Amino acid sequence: MIPLPVARQASGGATALRVGQIETAYGPVPKLFDEFWTAKQRQMHSLHYALSYRASFKPELPDFFIRQFSRPGEVIADPFGGRGTTVLQAALLGRRGISNDVNPLSERITYPKVHPVALEDLEARLARIPLDQPRDLSREEDMSMFYHPDTYREILNLRDYLQTHRDDVDRFLEMIAISRLHGHSPGFFSAYSFPQISIPKGNQVKINKTRGVEPDYREIKSRILKKARTTLKDGRLDEIITSGRHVRLTVGDSRDLRDWPDSSVNLVVTSPPFLNQVDYVLDTWIETWFCGIDTRSIETKVVQTPDLGEWMQFISDTLSELHRALVPGGKVAMEVGEIRYQGELLNLDETVVSLTTSKPYNLGQFKVLGVYVQSQEFTKLSNCFRVKNNVLGTNSNRIVLMEKI
């Protein structure tokens, strides 16, 4: 039987528990449909909302599985770390975390979350950084469609400073600056743009033309401090810093987690790429530019494939590596969604289950305990991308819960 949740965590009981199953050659796999966590926005610690990140899951998801299937002091890991949601929530719950991602941007974002600093220290550091140094913008990357020249000058001076100053205050400052690089309100450095993704320059030119505006001056220090204040408002910094000392961050392929010791992980909570539904390199190009990360060095490493067979092999190889790193009886909660593939709706949870019951893939490595399907009314972000509730897109959380054999 699938482990039933100890307590319902959703607000208001908007849905009723329904139980289905997936048929396999080795028997049925139970499938639970319910609102296991709240659909409300920004209900968790404020550090989780330091910045937007494409295709990231809500912190309520790892919170649910960490509480249900681990104990304080145990190791919680994520081979597709993204913006660090899993390891931050693990730290908040008194667990030790390991996070990996093939894109080094993930480490730049995650480290400050588990090593937060006091607002007063950030304010003092900002006051010491001369952002008004003259620059010859004709020698720089053309970002005139996003930034006013004076704003861009400040961004470049901060960028240069951060290349050689890397203590915890500087790294937290960098994360907050990353969060302000582009967005749709006056609190961002850029003209009106998308906050979740870095759009191509030509698209930004079209937005400016449609709106009949040019980028106006946005002073960056005050915007950094304002965002930092909201990011740190929930406190618990000493507690997070103490837990953060036990967090390990690695950069590499999920199929080769060489820095993860054998039999060391109690629970994995993760979400792999859903074939080629998201371009993890293009969608973060402004962030990687600001951090000085060469996108060419990661383009060939990020798995973004339109081919289901290639994706299945990638997930299978990742699961084999996780099997090595897990303790006996350790668990994996892998969040996937449903996508349109060759004109048909494909539930990737069923695809992942099939890997564990197939000889060419992961037969004998994992027992699937069940599948959790989060049933809820999605919020404005989903609606912006024209996602129908629990029908289309990748916003229907489907989590395959597996146990190491």
Attribute tags:
globular, 405 residues, 2 domains, 11 strands, Rossmann fold, two-stranded antiparallel sheet, 9-stranded mixed sheet, alpha/beta
Structural commentary:
The protein has 405 residues and is of the alpha/beta class. The chain has two domains: 18-101 and 246-278 and 303-404, Rossmann fold; 119-231, no CATH class. It has 14 helices and eleven strands. The chain has helices spanning 60-69, 85-92, 104-114, 119-128, 149-164, 168-179, 201-211, 220-231, 237-244, 285-291, 296-299, 308-325, 348-355, 380-384; strands at 18-22, 29-34, 75-78, 96-101, 248-251, 265-270, 326-336, 338-341, 344-347, 366-374, 398-404.
Order of helices and strands: EEHEHEHHHHHHHEEHHHEEEHEHE
Total individual domains: 2
Number of strands: 11
Strand arrangement in the largest pleated sheet = 1-2-10-11-7-6-3-4-5
Strand content: 15-25%
- Could you name the ranges where pLDDT drops below 50 across 5 or more consecutive residues? 6-12, 378-394
Q: Tell me, what is the CATH class of the largest domain?
A: Alpha Beta
The largest sheet is: 9 strands, mixed
Find the CATH topology of the largest domain.
Rossmann fold
The span between the termini is 16 Å
CATH architecture of the largest domain: 3-Layer(aba) Sandwich
Tell me the radius of gyration. 22 Å
